Amino acid sequence: MTCLAPSIVRYCCLLVICLVSCPYLVWGQGETVDDVLQHVPLAAVIGMKASGVQGQSASWTDLIVSAGGSYLIATGMTWSLKHLVHKERPDGSDHYSFPSGHATYAFAGATILRHEYGHLSPWITVSGYSLAALVSIDRVRRDRHHWMDVIAGGGIGVLSGELGFWLGNKLTGKKRQCQLLMSPQNIYFCYTF
Fold first, then answer.
1. Between these two residues, 21 and 115, which has the higher pLDDT value?
2. CA 152 to chain centre
3. Does position 103 have pLDDT exceeding 50, yes or no?
4. Exposed, middle or buried by CB within 10 Å (0-12, 13-18, 19+), for 71?
5. Which of 23, 70, 147, 160 has the fewest CB atoms in 10 Å of its CB?
6. What is the pLDDT of residue 112?
């Protein structure tokens, strides 16, 4: 019989609390549950980091650069494609169906969760990606997207999460090759070859 270490149990409990409580914070305010659930994986990362759970990022700065970079890339790619493709939604409400922004953010958050806390337990990774998949399925069920929209959004989310952490490691990691220096008059960007 295998027992989980108490710290792993505590981490998983914190993750479950984040996953369960976030949708209820805005319940009844006209929001749909998938509008909230798309951000739960990232909220779980922030909640675990704030409660002292040691992630892969050495500091808050490292996490903010990596996660912020991931979300910026996700937003840029999704917004650009929505305005270039102009695919009509299944419910006919507008022409911004492709790709699904909800799926993009959910999978980007799940990828951030995997990078930060996947080393603690594989169930943390499974729960993040399962939630992202449920958000995507719900978008199709609500007639807001076609299957290809959420598949593309999921792919963009995973790709942006990976790119964000790659860039974050280049900017703030141990083997960083970039430095950003700021003074009141100037901003300097240095790259080491």
1. 115
2. 15
3. yes
4. buried
5. 147
6. 93
pLDDT above 90: residue 170: no
| pTM, rounded to two decimals | 0.75
The dihedrals phi and psi of 59, each to the nearest 5 degrees, come to -145, 170
- Please give the DSSP secondary-structure letter assigned to residue 92: S
DSSP string, 62-84: HHHHHHHHHHHHHHHHHHHHHHH
Q: Is 66 exposed, middle or buried (0-12, 13-18, 19+ CB in 10 A)?
A: buried
93 class by beta-carbon count within 10 Å (0-12 exposed, 13-18 middle, 19+ buried): exposed
Percent with pLDDT over 90 in the chain = 19
